[in-house]
User: Which sequence fits this backbone?
């Protein structure tokens, strides 16, 4: 019989404790239980990949952390502060530590690329326009789009838009970056560029990443830990070599051979 | 039918007076309906039922009663309650209020057409609610609704002659007054008919320019 990973935290709290922690989190949509008393935590600086069949609850976890939806039960803690249950005010404060990149980019089409990156740092973090623009230009340089400052997002390719979206999330200097199937909406030839960028960011920063992806090679490259989800629970968890090389669960093996 | 150019030139000074009033009523009525319609649309999105419900009832009531009845009501009933406005003000308020119940539907559709991903991105960036509306949602919504709002401007223009019944001397009022004094009907009515076409056309040109500028 397998280890019931849903009952115990997967990483032991060390020193300051985990940066992200979900305890006994349940989320239902009507009669459908998407997450079932889920426990897991992520230590600061770690890169965790969530894999599993669609509908298994991976994206829901990211959406819970981004406060785009609320759990029905359980507690969520980020950086030692309660995200759920918590007051609106507290929730807004804690949320600033989290950034998210979406499958469909979700850039603001009514703003230039530069303004997409400066809007939140100015209005939320209180940076001056100059500071925000300097930060934005650095980030656009990092993602290889320094020349696209004054362009509207709609004039960019999908891959370029996604790189802007990554830069936009980073402009808020989040402690946790949530990546929700960020290459799924891209044309095949554009996927590699975005994944390379994320590999760079994973390597060169100490940002904590939670990543839902179907790109198994990418998951293998960047992950410290891979969580295999099935039916709202963590079926299996471990380092990528283990999950991709020698999984304990037959279901994991099947899933990985089907997507690879 | 005999056409008398001298009747036309006799009418022209009155026509210009009427045109100014018509344009005034149209411009102010449009502004009121655009602003108030947005207010209604936003109020209908508040989480509190105690705001949505009365707004829904009032706007439904205004939308479902004739503008003409509203004009009479505002002009003859409100003064009895101690509220007095000039005839033109009354007319502008009536047109603006009446059409605001239509523009609110336009705004609603425009707001709903903004993809949910835009809201989610705003949340992910921790933008405050107010800023999300002003910087993200409304600029995208308004862009979508300009053509539909434009149609209501034309509709409002064609409803301005109703102001005649509350003594406002807009174009039709001037034409009628002129006819009563001179017994000439063809010339003044033709002149204002042409004027309506010209103003409609200019207004739609203006709106199309605005639309193009916004969409860019």
Assistant:
């Amino acid at each position: 019989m397998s280890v019931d990973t849903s009952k115990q935290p997967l990483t032991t709290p060390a020193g300051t404790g985990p940066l992200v922690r979900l305890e006994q989190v349940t989320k239902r949509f009507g009669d459908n239980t998407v997450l079932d008393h889920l426990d897991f935590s992520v230590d600061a600086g770690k890169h965790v990949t969530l894999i599993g069949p669609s509908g298994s609850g991976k994206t829901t976890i990211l959406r819970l952390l981004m406060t785009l939806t609320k759990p029905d039960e359980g507690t969520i803690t980020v950086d030692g502060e309660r995200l759920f249950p918590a007051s609106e005010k507290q929730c807004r404060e804690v949320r600033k530590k989290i950034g998210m990149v979406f499958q469909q980019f979700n850039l603001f089409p009514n703003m230039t690329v530069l303004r997409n990156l400066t809007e939140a740092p100015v209005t939320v973090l209180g940076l001056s326009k100059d500071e925000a623009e300097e930060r934005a230009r650095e980030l656009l340089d990092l993602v290889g789009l320094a020349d696209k400052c004054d362009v509207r997002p709609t004039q960019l390719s999908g891959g370029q838009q996604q790189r802007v979206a990554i830069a936009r999330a980073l402009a808020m200097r989040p402690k946790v970056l949530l990546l929700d199937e960020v290459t799924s909406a891209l044309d095949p030839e554009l996927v590699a560029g975005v994944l390379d960028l994320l590999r760079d960011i994973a390597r060169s920063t100490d940002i904590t990443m939670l990543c839902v992806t179907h790109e198994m090679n990418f998951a293998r490259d960047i992950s410290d830990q891979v969580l295999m989800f099935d039916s709202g629970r963590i079926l299996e968890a471990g380092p990528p070599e283990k999950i991709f090389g020698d999984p304990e669960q037959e279901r994991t093996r099947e899933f990985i051979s089907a997507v690879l | 039918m005999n056409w008398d150019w001298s009747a036309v030139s006799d009418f022209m000074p009155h026509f210009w007076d009427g045109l100014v009033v018509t344009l005034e009523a149209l411009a102010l009525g449009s502004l009121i309906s655009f602003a108030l319609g947005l207010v209604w649309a936003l109020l209908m999105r508040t989480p509190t039922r105690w705001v949505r419900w009365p707004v829904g009832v009032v706007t439904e009531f205004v939308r479902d009663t004739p503008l003409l009845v509203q004009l009479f009501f505002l002009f003859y009933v409100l003064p009895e309650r101690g509220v007095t406005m000039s005839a033109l003000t009354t007319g502008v308020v009536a047109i603006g209020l009446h059409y605001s119940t239509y523009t609110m539907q336009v705004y609603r559709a425009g707001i709903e057409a903004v993809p949910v991903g835009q809201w989610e991105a705003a949340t992910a960036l921790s933008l405050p609610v107010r800023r999300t509306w002003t910087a993200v949602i409304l600029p995208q919504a308004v862009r979508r609704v300009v053509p539909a709002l434009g149609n209501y401007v034309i509709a409002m223009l064609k409803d301005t002659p109703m102001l005649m019944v509350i003594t406002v001397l807009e174009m039709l009022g001037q034409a009628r007054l002129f006819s009563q004094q001179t017994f000439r009907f063809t010339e003044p009515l033709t002149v204002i008919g042409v004027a309506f076409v010209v103003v409609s056309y200019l207004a739609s040109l203006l709106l199309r320019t605005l639309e193009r500028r916004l969409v860019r």
Observations:
- Chain B has a mean pLDDT of 93.
- The domain at 20-170 of chain B is CATH 1.10.3720.10 (MetI-like fold).
